[in-house]
């Protein structure tokens, strides 16, 4: 149910790494002049301010409860700061419960998707069995189908088997992740066969080989894929909106959007946004490169 | 389940037994993922297309209607409105996003003091859910928000989300804001593959930066631009979150998109058959883009 990515498109086939900016000292011809750098700084700063403004305004206005917003006065961060909106949203709303639900939704899905797709990817990459090609291509073909085509039948199915408003109903359907299987297969195909052969000769069982040899070797791709799956679930909206019916089951996205329909004051809304976005931003701050790779390297954005 | 694997027939009995065992194990490894697939992708896809030929609602009564849902769709002005809105959004959001991605990628692709900082800033919106950040944008585009203050001298003041004309540009701006960083990262990666010598040679020959971009960088980026265009277009066809949190499809259905209509029909009116038909329309649009992609790639080869 991710945004579909055509399987034949190039950047999907290999997990890309984003090159870190490094200086090439041998050639200087393309290095911009001092004036060039200053000009670049100016226009990039302008773009940066525009891109960052919503975050800035979100934080500052969340600290100004009970005021009529005046421009530009209300955007000055040090005047009349109050944390009342945060108290309000943390005590008056079930936001910590939503946070917990989102964590469950994201973490359980990450672990399950990584495990299942590694298992399947390993078999697709290194094993021979009847029906392998047909299975693999039917996986890939499903990438082409927009999630929304399946939305109604999935809901009817979930309603039929009692999955509405439950954790398992929320999580289970999102575990069928074609991109994950595809990426795992691509990565494992690049691992040398000898490693598995040696273990097999030593008498290790297949599942043991998978756990002890394949999984550790897959660490880099598991990290990239894991971050992507986590982020995607954290931000997922339409599916939780349909499945999580009661306030106690809401994820952050569903809960925060429900606030908007309750006529909650702006500063309280924004305090909710800040609380909901903070964990992701914090993670981004620590692991920027991995997050960037997780989103771009998998060739998909939710 | 038969487990005969024989591209090259195994030589000894032992080898044959081992191959059979391997196949069995492999099948078991694939099985959980495959079952999930049948249940939650394959089955629902077929059911989704199938359902569009039926009338099915909350009463649980299901009757075959042939093409009735599609006939209703073609005659439904709301459907054409939703299709028009979706296409309009796509036509603006995708090119603007691509141009912005390319421009910013050109700005931060090489090392200079601050390159990494700018990349991080530009990437921040990509990991931000528009549902979670929606309320700040509602304020930004509201009548006394900064955007309308900024646009007032141009005669475009007032609430953009309250205007049937300006609501689409507002949604486009937010959509582009949330996606350009992704395109930028992909572009940076692609630009890194351009041989430095080529650009240096052009520089020696006195080519200015526009000429270098036009005749060296851009031809190199063509496949990437194309890839991004396809990804962005299919994503734009599915625009929903931003509309749900900012306008609820309004004012006067001016920002009513296809997926919003699907959601409305399915989960507000519980008209599952009709909602499924809208899903099929979306599917056809997506397939059309994929087909165009195939044709273009085939032509390039």
Which key terms come to mind for this protein?
A: 302 residues; mainly alpha; MetI-like fold; 15 helices; disordered N terminus; B: 301 residues; 2 domains; two-stranded antiparallel sheet; 2 strands; 2% strand
How would you sum up this structure, described in words?
The complex is a heterodimer of chains A (302) and B (301). Chain A contains 15 helices and no strands. Chain A has helices at residues 10-13, 34-62, 84-92, 95-126, 132-142, 147-160, 167-171, 178-189, 194-201, 206-217, 219-235, 238-243, 252-260, 266-286, 288-296. Residues 1-15 of chain A have low confidence and may be disordered. With 301 residues, chain B is mostly helical. Chain B folds into two domains: 13-51; 70-300, MetI-like (MetI-like fold), CATH 1.10.3720. Chain B is built from twelve helices and two strands, in the order αββααααααααααα. In chain B, helix 2 (68-75) crosses helix 12 (272-300), helix 3 runs antiparallel to helix 9 (209-237) and helix 3 (77-108) crosses helix 11 (258-267). Chains A and B meet through helix 2, helix 4, helix 5, helix 6 and helix 10 of A and helix 1, helix 3, helix 4, helix 5 and helix 7 of B.
């Amino acid at each position: 149910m991710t945004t579909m990515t055509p399987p034949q498109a190039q950047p999907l086939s290999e997990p890309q790494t984003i090159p870190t900016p490094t200086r090439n000292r041998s050639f200087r011809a393309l290095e911009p002049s001092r004036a060039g750098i200053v000009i670049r700084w100016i226009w990039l700063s302008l773009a940066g301010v525009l891109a960052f403004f919503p975050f800035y305004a979100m934080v500052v206005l969340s600290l100004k409860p009970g005021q009529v917003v005046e421009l530009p006065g209300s955007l000055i961060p040090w005047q009349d700061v109050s944390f009342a909106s945060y108290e309000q949203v943390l005590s008056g709303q079930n936001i910590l419960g939503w946070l917990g639900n989102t964590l469950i939704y994201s973490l359980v899905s990450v672990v399950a998707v990584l495990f299942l797709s590694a298992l399947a990817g390993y078999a697709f990459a290194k094993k021979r069995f009847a029906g392998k090609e047909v299975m693999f291509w039917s996986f890939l073909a499903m990438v082409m189908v927009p999630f929304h085509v399946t939305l109604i039948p999935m809901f009817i199915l979930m309603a039929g088997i009692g999955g509405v408003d439950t954790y398992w109903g929320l999580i289970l359907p999102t575990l069928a992740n074609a991109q994950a299987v595809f990426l795992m297969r691509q990565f494992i195909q690049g691992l040398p066969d000898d490693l598995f052969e040696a273990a097999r000769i030593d008498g290790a069982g297949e599942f043991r080989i998978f756990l002890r040899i394949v999984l550790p070797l897959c660490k880099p791709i598991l990290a990239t894929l894991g971050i992507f799956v986590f982020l995607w679930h954290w931000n997922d909206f339409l599916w939780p909106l349909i499945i999580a019916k009661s306030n106690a089951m809401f994820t952050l996205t569903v809960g925060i959007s429900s606030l908007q329909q309750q006529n909650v004051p702006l500063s309280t809304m924004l305090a909710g946004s800040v609380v909901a976005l903070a964990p992701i931003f914090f993670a981004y701050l620590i692991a920027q490169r991995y997050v960037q790779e997780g989103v771009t390297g998998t060739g998909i954005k939710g | 389940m038969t487990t005969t694997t024989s591209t090259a027939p195994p030589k000894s009995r032992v080898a044959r037994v081992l191959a059979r065992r391997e196949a069995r194990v492999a099948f078991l490894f694939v099985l959980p993922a495959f079952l999930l697939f049948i249940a939650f992708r394959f089955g629902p896809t077929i059911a989704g297309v199938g359902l569009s030929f039926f009338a099915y609602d909350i009463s649980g009564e299901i009757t075959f209607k042939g093409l009735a849902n599609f006939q209703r769709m073609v005659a439904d002005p709301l459907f054409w409105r939703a299709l028009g809105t979706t296409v309009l959004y796509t036509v603006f959001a995708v090119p603007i996003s691509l141009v912005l991605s390319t421009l910013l990628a050109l700005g931060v692709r090489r090392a200079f003091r601050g390159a990494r900082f700018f990349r991080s800033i530009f990437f921040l919106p990509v990991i931000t859910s528009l549902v979670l950040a929606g309320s700040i944008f509602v304020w930004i585009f509201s009548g006394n928000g900064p955007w309308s203050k900024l646009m007032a001298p141009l005669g475009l003041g007032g609430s953009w989300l309250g205007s049937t004309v300006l609501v689409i540009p507002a949604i486009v701006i937010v959509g582009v804001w949330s996606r350009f960083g992704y395109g930028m990262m992909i572009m940076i990666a692609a630009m890194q593959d351009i041989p430095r010598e080529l650009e240096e040679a052009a520089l020696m020959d006195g080519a200015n930066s526009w000429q270098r971009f036009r005749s060296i960088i851009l031809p190199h980026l063509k496949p990437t631009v194309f890839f991004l265009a396809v990804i962005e277009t299919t994503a734009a066809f599915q625009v929903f979150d931003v509309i749900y949190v900012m306008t609820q499809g309004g004012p006067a259905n001016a920002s009513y998109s296809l997926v919003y209509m699907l959601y409305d029909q399915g989960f507000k009116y519980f008209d599952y058959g009709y909602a499924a038909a809208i899903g099929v329309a979306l599917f056809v649009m997506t397939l059309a883009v994929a087909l165009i992609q195939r044709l273009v790639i085939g032509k390039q080869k």
